């Protein structure tokens, strides 16, 4: 029984494994300059001084003790010290820590790369099954290698949404004169992120083809020892697609709030400007005599205002009877189901499914015979299909075989001679001589 307890062990070793902020920044600065090369104690001291100065920390009288303490802490888990050469070098753990942080920070959104990854996974999985190789090999050699990159792409989008939300919360200060431009910039960024999420979902479409292959393995009772791995791949695909959907839903929830705030801000800003203008008029306008009457004189920088009379003169309006007469109730529209159309659609769907199953059936038979014999004359096979099925099934089976050959061109070879061969029964149907052969 495994007695290892992660919490208990980490509690005792946490400070040695996870550096505090200043220590971590010093390590990253050293890693950026020297990577796996040697460096001196003077290099460490100059980096410490630079980081503390950049952080705005005041100079300490005990700076010597502080630096020694930092170097000693580094030697526990992160740095080797060569006493004979008086140099330092990163330990494996320290190097991996800095490398992971570097990779995390420079990760770029790249849906084309993800699409290529899935295409390679699909191709390698198909080859693994065709060759009868161990499914565990595909998991280790292909899926596990690409899993971190696939996961990180979704995390990048989610991180961008979090940053936009944080910027929205900090940018709604009414005293910020440029708040509207900031909010509009956030809205544009969210539109870009949502588009990127859609592009990434499209890149994940090939995962459905991989799932179909895995479902086929489960249905055929193959790979019994690898059921947990199959479920692991399927769960990853399902969770990834769900997470991408959640990113889009979060954006859909945030954007109306941004627009609502912009609307409220504009309305309040208009009210503030109106109140300021009225206050200016009340303070700067004066009453002057004009003969026997008095009038208001506005400030000199206003060139006169036209004020409409608030008195409404009565007018006589004629309203036609048809506009005030009783209106007949509008009949309620009753919706009916077009049974005939629904029946036709169902029959069309069933026919399409039947054709697809038959094409799959014939294609599978062709490649089984090809695998067994090494070569196959397809033209007689075409007329055999035509004898048992419709012409459409035979033609689409031929297209399906040629299309599969373009995918696995390194495995199969198709030879076509442009010499027509006619059906014995139906002289109107002919086909070029086509031969399939394993490479």
Order of helices and strands: HHEHHEEHHHHHHEEHEHHEE
Give unreliable regions as ranges.
none
**Percent range for helical residues?**
55-70%
- Judging by the overall fold, what is the CATH architecture of the largest domain? Up-down Bundle
Radius of gyration: 38 Å
Instruction: Output the CATH topology of the largest domain.
Output: Methane Monooxygenase Hydroxylase, Chain G, domain 1
Mean pLDDT: 79
Our estimate of the beta-strand percent is 5-15%
What class do helices, strands and sheet pairing give? Answer: mainly alpha
The domain tally reads 3
Q: What does the overall shape look like?
A: flat
Question: What does this molecule look like?
Answer:
With 439 residues, this protein is mainly alpha-helical. The chain folds into three domains: 96 residues, Arc Repressor Mutant, subunit A; 168 residues, Methane Monooxygenase Hydroxylase, Chain G, domain 1, CATH 1.20.58; 85 residues, Arc Repressor Mutant, subunit A (Orthogonal Bundle), CATH 1.10.10. It is 65% helix and 10% strand. The chain has 13 helices and eight strands. The strands form three sheets. A three-stranded antiparallel sheet has the order 1-3-2. A three-stranded antiparallel sheet has the order 6-8-7. It has a two-stranded antiparallel ribbon with strand order 4-5. The radius of gyration is 38 Å and the shape is flat.
Task: Offer a concise description of the structure.
The chain has 439 residues and is mostly helical. It has helices at 6-17, 21-34, 41-54, 63-77, 92-106, 111-130, 135-170, 179-203, 206-219, 227-284, 339-373, 378-388, 391-407, and strands spanning 39-40, 79-82, 87-90, 286-290, 293-297, 375-377, 412-422, 430-438.
